[in-house]
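Input chain follows. Return structure tokens only.
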Amino acid sequence: MAKCGSCHALARANTKGIIGPNLDEAFRQSLAEGAGRSTIRGVVEGQVLNPNPEGAMPKNLAGGATLRDIAAYVEQVAARGGQDSGLLATAVAPAGAGKPAVETGGKLSVPASPTGQLAYVTNKATATPGPVTVEMPNTSGVSHNIAVQQGSNGPVLGASSFITKGSASVKVTLKPGTYTFFCQVPGHRQAGMEGTLTVK
């Protein structure tokens, strides 16, 4: 579900992607008009197996038992509230739930989530004043970058290139204070791909 959640919102899974359709809203009207939940399963399987060639969903994203599990899950939870329990409750980690990143020797590493979730592995970082190279390793296959902004809505001090695999970095000179790091891909910051960098 983490890969699906990088593009789709689904309340029960706590995913907030905005690139693809909101899965709760996509099926809410059909369910209200009497469509059976098994219809959802068929639509999800069909869309994953045969994505729109002009859309954002990659081909061969899932298949076999994995696809059947994904479709069955969406069938059961789309347009329904509540919270998952057991393994499903931890299938998609909260955005930025990892340990804070700490600058060492002028370098600060803030990896993108390897699952494809629209998040960095942490939403907190600390650094000392002076020149800092902020590095963003990315193994997800989803395009991301990292930008550093003064405060939460001040000027952007610098931004890395956009990458889907590898590592990108940006060098900034920081004074004591609070900064925000975030992804500039449209929709990613709004989905939660941001964090606070404290310099002291």
